[in-house]
From TrEMBL:
It holds the Pfam family Lipase_3. Gene3D superfamilies: alpha/beta hydrolase (3.40.50.1820). Residues 102-225 form the Fungal lipase-type domain. This is Fungal lipase-type domain-containing protein. GO terms for biological process: lipid metabolic process. It comes from marine metagenome.
């Protein structure tokens, strides 16, 4: 009995110390990366094209469906090409009248895809001259080579994808641009990081990239950045979706702020609890992205808010420490 009581007391003490440590780390991270109330956001004078984002979100979701459903959804307006490489399905919609190609790449759908996700070592692309996430790069290069033989150079190309598919979409867009195709834009949903700070500097002006991210989706924050010089980092404009139609629109360089894309800051916000982080996984699903985009595009509920104020627009009960206190106070 004494052993059980002693063990319980030690466990409670360790839990209390870890909770206190989480609060200290959280405060230091916020201060270090100039976030929350101290975040100086550049005014964004560009409007979010919600109708475009919703169309691409639907396309990114459709690639998860069966070939018959894909065919039924687009056969009246497009020529459709469906293929699968390394267990990654992708589709190409071609509109002859507008001279346009639309490419959608599927995200994680099986264990093989999951292994590609976690293979986050980097290898160098000989064509692009930058280092890329190995798991994403190997498949993206094969898909790009297939597309190079099928797309028409005088057509505009738009690429989209969700999760793993979004990461591959970015690399495929870079390869198509390198081959002198007219890549109009790349729009991704819940996309993880694909290259490091050196790669971002080299590719920053190559394509128009928009990342759509749910605030409580942890996948865009991985791979977790370390302290090494060329750590994984994001690139492109970011539309951050909150609850009830609220959103943040961050242009570069605001969207590139290390703290904005920090896995460790997110983990600190969740008190470094795997349970709390795990509860956020449904926010990575395309159904949630489509719903949030619908709310944001509504004239009644859609409203842009500043990054520093965004936490009061998140209906999440798992936040602890000063984040939770702040939210309760402002309610």
């Amino acid at each position: 009995m004494a052993f059980i009581i002693g063990f319980t007391l030690r466990w409670l003490l360790k839990s209390w110390l870890l909770a206190k440590l989480a609060i200290v780390v959280r405060r230091k991270l916020i201060k270090k990366y100039n976030l929350e109330k101290h975040f100086k956001q550049t005014h964004c004078d560009k409007k979010v094209k919600w109708s475009d984002l919703r169309w691409y979100a639907d396309l990114a979701a459709k690639v998860y469906k069966s070939k018959d459903k894909i065919q039924a959804a687009y056969e009246n307006d497009f020529k459709i090409y469906v293929n699968e490489i390394n267990e990654i399905r992708y589709i190409v919609l071609t509109n002859e009248s507008s001279k346009s190609h639309y490419v959608s790449i599927r995200g994680t759908a099986n264990s093989h895809n999951a292994m590609q996700d976690i293979n986050f070592f980097k290898d160098k692309s000989k064509r692009l001259g930058i280092y890329l996430h190995t798991g994403f790069h190997r498949t993206a290069e094969i898909i790009a080579d297939d597309l190079l033989s099928r797309l028409k150079e005088d057509y505009k190309v738009c690429v989209t994808g969700h999760s793993l598919g979004g990461a591959i979409a970015v690399i495929v867009s870079w390869y198509l641009d390198h081959a002198n195709f007219n890549v109009k834009e790349c729009i991704t949903f819940g996309q993880p990081k694909v290259t490091d700070s050196h790669g971002n500097r080299a590719m920053r002006d190559k394509i128009k990239l928009t990342r759509v991210v749910n605030e409580t989706d942890v996948v865009p924050l991985v791979p977790p950045a370390g302290t090494h010089r060329h750590r994984y980092a994001h690139i492109g404009t970011m539309v951050k979706l909150l609850d009830d139609g609220k959103y943040c629109h961050l242009q570069e360089p605001d969207s590139l702020n290390f703290g904005v894309n920090s896995f460790w800051l997110f983990a600190a916000r969740e008190s470094f609890s795997f349970y709390e982080i795990g509860k956020e996984l449904p926010d990575h699903y395309m159904t949630n992205y489509i719903y949030n985009l619908k709310m944001c595009s509504s004239s009644k509920s859609g409203e842009e808010v500043l990054w520093k104020d965004r936490l009061q627009y998140i209906s999440h009960e798992g936040m602890l420490g000063e984040f939770g206190k702040k939210k309760k106070k402002e309610k």
